[in-house]
Amino acid sequence: MPYDTLDGLLDDFNAWGRSSGFGFIKTSPGNYVSGVPTCAYIVCDRGGHQKKSKATTRRTTTLKTGCEWTATAKSLKKNDRKWALEVKNASHNHEADADEAELVTHRVHRGLTDAMKATVQALSLNPAQRPRDIFFYLLKQFPNEVFTLKDI
């Protein structure tokens, strides 16, 4: 299905990824036409390699596994500049996160939606509102969203 924008394609793809236990990000937009990119790579958010840590006080960890799942999103002139996705490497080197609670580890699935941001902004007008109270209010109002207190 063609999409009008790259962000629309990525949002729809991540909605599928959320239900399947995966997350995806865009990288390297390029081939600009009139200031707008016409291609970009879509990769698994677990792709990339762990960097050597210089920390000596505490152990650090990363969620990167070197996953090589990749796709290319293109907006071709012959398709009226509609965005389409072509998967280049369809294999993941890690298991899907089947549990909803584990999706918080995928940064693309964590965060506040526009409706949640508007709610936070409205509740923040009252100086007596504590962030913790706003957090619990959001949990009740948006039970299917994954976010942390740090996102507020």
Architecture overview:
The chain is of the alpha+beta class and 152 residues long. The chain has three helices and four strands. It has helices spanning 6-20, 114-123, 131-141; strands spanning 24-30, 39-44, 70-75, 83-89. Strands 1-2-3-4 form a four-stranded antiparallel sheet, covered by helices on one side. The radius of gyration is 19 Å and the shape is globular. Residues 14-96 form the FAR1 domain. Pfam families: FAR1. This is FAR1 domain-containing protein.
Keywords:
single chain; 152 residues; alpha+beta; four-stranded antiparallel beta sheet; globular
Order of strands across the widest beta sheet? Answer: 1-2-3-4
Radius of gyration: 19 Å
Q: Structural class, from helix and strand content?
A: alpha+beta
The general outline is: globular
- Low-confidence regions: none
Pattern of helices and strands: HEEEEHH
The overall average pLDDT, rounded, is 81
| N/C terminus separation | 34 Å
Percent range of helical residues = 10-25%
Number of helices: 3
Sheet-strand content, in percent, reads 15-25%
Total count of strands? 4
Largest sheet at a glance? 4 strands, antiparallel
Concise account of the structure shown:
By secondary structure, the chain is α+β, with helices and mostly antiparallel strands.
